[in-house]
Amino acid sequence: TSSAILLSIVLLFFLFKDGRSMWRWLLSKTSDESRPMFTAAGRAGWQTLTAYSRGTVTIAAIDAIGIGAALVVLKVPAAVLLALITFIGAFVPIIGATVAGIAAVLVALAARGPATALLVAAAVIAVQQIEGNLLEPLIMKRQVSLHPAVVLVVVTAGTLAGGIPGAFVAVPITAVVYRIIETVAEYRRARGDIDSSLE
Fold first, then answer.
1. CA end-to-end span of the chain, whole Å?
2. Distance CA 122, CA 130 (A)
3. pLDDT tens, 32-71?
4. CB atoms < 10 A from the CB of 61, how many?
5. Model's pTM, two decimal places?
6. Distance CA 20, CA 14 (A)
7. How far apart (Å, rounded) are the C-alpha atoms in residues 117 and 109?
């Protein structure tokens, strides 16, 4: 796992450092006819990854602040640590938020009793409902929209294939691949319509 994380960091460094030149090199290997399609697909994939990363960080911060504030008000021990777990958990859609919420409730139950645990559970549910029904559609918009069933399958597959790092990268990779395939399909449909109109 540590070697996979180190490799990911190194690859990410080179992607940010030499990403443009790498992309130009890849495009130079395509034919003149297909180059516009690859350009559009690559741009769509990059925009999706950017939107996902920015949106996830924003939502994770809001979750952590909201739940962390509730824990501080209710005087639950390790509120800052639980808020940090909530922030990290938000990067694994659905499953991460659920696990972080359960951890907060269990700590509240052990430290402050059932009444406080119920209040923490109510706060967690309220924050997650606001996030899921208001913030996520507003921040993520339609660029990275995946059905919850797809997200669950993808996260599970990523976890089985790559452990915790796999769970973190499964959804963004799926969203990017889906957007690329969608863009290529749209381009080919448009190309087909143009060709048929010229016949």
1. 56
2. 12
3. 888 888 888 888 888 888 888 888 888 889 899 999 999 9
4. 14
5. 0.74
6. 10
7. 5
